[in-house]
Amino acid sequence: MTHEYLVGLFVLGLSLVWTPGPNNALMAASGARFGYRRTLPHTMGVAIGFPLMFFLIALGLGGVFRSVPLLREALRYGGALILLWIAYKIATAPMPQAGDETHEHPWTFSRAVAFQWINPKAWVMSISLSGQLPETKPFWIAPLAGALVFLIAGLTSANGWTAFGAAIHRFLSTPLRFRAFNLVMAGLIVLTVAGILLADLSV
């Protein structure tokens, strides 16, 4: 595995993890609602959870996913339904009022890590990229290197999207602005679902 390959993978990883999708929309919405600090467990759960998932899929779980069509389709449609429900919850979330902090809570680290395993976009990315890893000895070197690359890239995007949400918190001071922002974040998730339903997950 050459340095040129790792640099290329890192550049590709940056473009993928910064692209709007379920994780990024959720972190931006959480940052806007709860602020950067309170969203940090969610942020780190995404930044660490996806590389961990990628590493395990690259070690062999990806082959199971590709070879069992029923599992593949169950993930596609089950994950799509979950994402649509999350999009609905974001779109209809009420504007936070004083004192809401005691009743509403951002995602925990463990919940964000677990979410990667029902996020079809994360599966598509992991399956596609793990199949492009070079062969190495021992065999786990390439999956580990790829996971570390995505950890670094993911830390930039996860913190960036959370900071973006937190930065515009004051701008969302009116019900109209707050609702418009949530509708945009929900729309990004819906667009991702449309792409998932049209994607060929067998490759």
Automatic annotation (TrEMBL):
The chain crosses the membrane at residues 44-65, 74-91, 139-168, 180-199. Its main location: membrane. InterPro entries: LeuE-type. Pfam families: LysE (PF01810). It is a multi-pass membrane protein. It comes from the Bacteria. It is found in: Cell membrane. Keywords: Cell membrane, Membrane, Transmembrane, Transmembrane helix. This is LysE family translocator.
